[in-house]
């Protein structure tokens, strides 16, 4: 009947609104937790993820490794080629990192030209092996500019593991970050484990 069709039409409209709202919520959530340049998680969400993963490691008596990454001499890319090229480089490096980590791992842009990886159920040796391949991947990556220039960067990596090196989030972050900075202050383009 006509009344039934009107009722079904109204129900369909409400369902369509509900689906649209769910999609919008999902998109807004994605915007809140991701870095819009790289597509990786942002620093704020990384902080939440690390809390969750440390709690999981405690609960299951497991380890996790934390990796800090800083691009070497990245300021020169911006100074010599402009911020648009620098942004492209950050986006491409972010995607390279994302392409090499497992689906259970987390990659985040920590700020500027720094990235961080959370590697659940991963020993320092496992993290070191991954980081060595990432180091080669970053080193061999070439960004082509519009004028045909080839730009390469290297990166400094620091690794620390929970609970072996640190038994809390603050010390774990500090230690991985310090390892990275020791590489930057000495050789650059290297890896240092706590």
UniProtKB/TrEMBL annotation:
GO cellular component, one term: plasma membrane
Name the UniProt record assigns to this protein: diguanylate cyclase
GO MF, any single term: diguanylate cyclase activity
EC number(s) reported in the record: 2.7.7.65
Transmembrane segments: none
Record Pfam families: GGDEF
Annotated InterPro entries: Diguanylate_Cyclase (IPR050469), GGDEF_dom (IPR000160), Nucleotide_cyclase (IPR029787), Rev_trsase/Diguanyl_cyclase (IPR043128)
Gene Ontology BP term (one): cell adhesion involved in single-species biofilm formation
Superkingdom to which the source organism belongs: Bacteria
Domain GGDEF, residue spans: 62-194
């Amino acid at each position: 009947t006509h009344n039934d069709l009107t009722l079904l039409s109204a129900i369909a409209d409400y369902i369509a609104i509900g689906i649209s709202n769910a999609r919008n919520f999902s998109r807004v959530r994605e915007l809140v937790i991701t870095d819009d340049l790289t597509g990786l998680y942002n620093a704020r969400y990384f902080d939440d993820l690390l809390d969750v993963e440390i709690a999981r490691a405690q609960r299951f008596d497991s380890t996790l490794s934390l990796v800090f990454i800083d691009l070497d001499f990245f300021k020169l890319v911006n100074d010599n080629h402009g911020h648009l090229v620098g942004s492209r480089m950050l986006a491409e490096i972010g995607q390279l990192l994302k392409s090499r980590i497992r689906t259970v791992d987390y990659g985040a842009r920590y700020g500027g030209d720094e990235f961080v990886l959370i590697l659940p159920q991963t020993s320092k040796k496992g993290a070191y092996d991954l980081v060595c391949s990432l180091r080669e991947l970053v080193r061999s990556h070439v960004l082509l500019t519009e004028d045909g220039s080839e730009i390469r960067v290297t990166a400094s990596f620091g690794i620390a593991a929970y609970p072996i090196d640190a038994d809390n989030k603050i010390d774990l972050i500090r230690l991985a970050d310090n390892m990275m900075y020791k590489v930057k202050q000495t050789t650059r383009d290297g890896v240092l484990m706590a």
